[in-house]
Design goal:
By secondary structure, the protein is of the alpha+beta class. Helix content is 31%, strand content 12%. The structure holds iron/sulfur cluster (2 copies). The site of one iron/sulfur cluster (SF4) has 14 residues, from α4.
Length: 195
């Protein structure tokens, strides 16, 4: 080691150069605006297309939209939806879901069930705070799903709009989930871009 380098090293050691060098980064950050969110006191703005908890929706007159057709159950890749349906005795030929379950612990929030629903009875909301110590409470039943749908109705509508499902019928058709050809029913024709 030459004399210059040795002198530099001694001076750096005497003046605690490494400490000042590290403090420089600390001082720089003292004058920056913090970017950390103080959750849960501060909440982020969630975009309309966000895929949060699922909810079931009603029509404006209070009737349940769901007709118990099972399409959401068939479209779900996680097999976490169970629908049990029956004929509605008060409305001939009309079916409804007597029971509806979504095991949200298995849900991958893909949104296929929402796309598959022909009557927009299912929608995703901006609700994401449902952590719990009891996993059994994460099996959402029909009542809970309708409660979520009711409490987050505006967000659910925004979700459907953001995913092109509550625009005009033809436009929405292009964005719907289509079952693989092998299980495609003759009543369901694929959209132009898939045929
Ligand atoms: S979002 Fe996807 S995984 Fe979750 S219930 Fe719907 S289809 Fe199944
Ligand atoms: S939510 Fe939609 S797709 Fe699922 S059973 Fe009800 S009507 Fe059918």
């Amino acid at each position: 080691m030459n004399v210059g380098a040795l002198t530099k090293k001694v001076l750096q050691a005497a003046l605690f150069y490494e400490i000042w060098d590290a403090m420089k980064v600390t001082f720089q950050h003292m004058f920056h605006r913090p970017i950390t969110f103080q959750y849960p006191r501060e909440q982020r703005t969630i975009p309309d297309a966000h895929r949060g908890a699922l909810g079931l929706l009603r029509y404006d007159d209070g009737h349940e939209r769901c007709v118990g057709c099972d399409l959401c159950e068939a479209a779900c890749p996680s097999r976490c939806i169970k629908v049990i349906s029956a004929e509605d005795p008060s409305r001939p030929l009309q079916r409804y879901a007597t029971e509806f379950y979504i095991d949200i612990t298995k849900c991958v929030f893909c949104g296929y069930c929402v796309e598959a629903c022909p009557v927009n009875a299912l929608a995703m909301t901006k609700m994401y705070e449902f952590s719990t110590h009891d996993k059994r409470t994460l099996l959402f039943d029909k009542k809970r799903l309708y409660d979520i749908g009711e409490r987050h109705l505006d967000d659910a509508k925004k979700y459907l709009y953001a995913h092109n499902q509550e625009k005009n019928v033809e436009e929405s058709r292009e964005y719907r989930y289509y079952f693989p050809q092998s299980v495609l029913k003759s009543t369901q024709s694929p959209p132009k871009h898939l045929s």
